[in-house]
Amino acid sequence: METSEVQKFNIKNLLSTKGAAAIIASTVAIVGVGALGVSSSIADGNKIVLGVRAEGQPIGGLDKVTAEKFFTNIAAKRIHELKFRYEGEEFIITPEDINLTAQVDKATQEAFAYGRGGSTIGNFNEQIKCLLNGRTVNLAAQYDSALLDEKLNAIAAKVNRDPVNAIVEFKSDGSINKIPGVIGKKLNTQELAANLKAPLTTLNLPSGVIDLVPEEIQPFITTEDIASIDSVLGSFSTYYYPGDRGDNIWLAANSISNKIVKPSWTFSFNDTVGERTWDAGYKVAGVIINGRPAEDYGGGVCQVSSTLYNAVLLAGLTPTERTPHFFQSTYIAPGRDATVADGQIDFKFRNDFPHNVYLIAEAYGSTLSVYVLGTKADLGGADIAIEREGSDMTPSIYRVWYSGNEVIKSEFLHTDVYETPKPREEPRQA
């Protein structure tokens, strides 16, 4: 191109001279007003001033049409689709998907802005600075960040997976089966979008495939958490009649099943089961309110907490909060119950063993069973029994640890005092 040759000639000859600055200064002094006139003429012309560069190439002397073609060709070479890969599957985001476009007009205008638009003297000085020091124009781009987020979220939907807890199963033959947990995956789309912002806006897009590295999410119960579980430390069963009350028992039993209690952790029945409401699926059944039989949502749940209480005692765990009913329950022996009420009365126990324990609760047909699984060695070879002294109305309960027929230790747990059931209140007559 003739213009480029002229530009190369001017830059080469002027800047290769050791006294370039002196010559320019002399020229300004000698030419004076004539030079200023030339400067004004160049600045008001349709050519980019000498010394302006873009993409490492000189573009001084180009007119607007040629400059636009120059930037358009650069954009065509540098704009391409983004490729992502995860576990052998590829995902593609095209420039059209996110409205990725080069700002050719902006770059062209920026190139033409040097050495023009100011005063005659100011324009001339700017041209001299461009000639001596050079000026660089960078081609930028823009894209729709909302569309990018949408595409990345679509990719994440195929990459992400929820973690799955490890599970311990207690078989009918007495064996224990362990199912390993599954580590979850989550692609951090916000971080990925932030990392892509600079390459997209500067048109420095990665040429190869981007390998996605999602975050790992450990399940709440990991495979390691259940590794030491090898036996049933304690279990207990009670019986009920099917119906609304039985449905409530089934719901509550499911809520406490497949739960792990790590060393020093305290298990809360209310926190685990949640409120017994219609929205949670609970039905109206028999309860005790202020010492009187009544009907309310969640009737029957106390049988689950009581069954759990006995399994916990037989497993050697430590009850920390337990309250008896106002009067004796029909489904369990006196002194062996543990009542609960939303936001008022809770049953809690703590794991003082060095290893984790795992709860399994089953309610089928008319039988409710709770199993506490753990590490057999934590019991030190002892067997545990629950013994009672006193009458049915004032029972005293002890937990006794045996080694064979020998008593290792005897723990006094509590003495309950039951009341005689009050009659059900009759509705008032108008």
3D architecture notes:
This protein has 430 residues and is an alpha+beta fold. Among the domains are: 2-79 and 107-138, no CATH class; 228-415, no CATH class. The chain is built from 11 helices and 24 strands. A 4-stranded antiparallel β-sheet has the order 13-21-20-14. It has a 3-stranded mixed β-sheet with strand order 2-1-6. The protein has a 3-stranded mixed β-sheet with strand order 4-3-11, covered by helices on one side. A hairpin with a 2-residue loop joins strand 1 and strand 2. The longest helix has 15 residues, at 64-78. Mean pLDDT is 88; it is low at 1-44.
Could you outline the blueprint of secondary structure elements for this entry?
Blueprint: H1 2-15, H2 20-31, H3 33-43, E1 52-54, E2 57-58, H4 64-78, E3 82-86, E4 89-93, E5 101-102, H5 104-113, H6 120-133, E6 135-137, E7 141-142, H7 145-159, E8 167-170, E9 176-179, E10 184-186, H8 189-202, E11 209-211, E12 215-217, E13 231-239, H9 244-256, E14 259-261, E15 266-268, H10 269-273, E16 284-289, E17 292-297, H11 301-314, E18 318-321, E19 348-350, E20 357-364, E21 367-374, E22 383-389, E23 396-403, E24 406-415
Helix pairs in contact: 3-6, 4-5, 7-8, 9-11
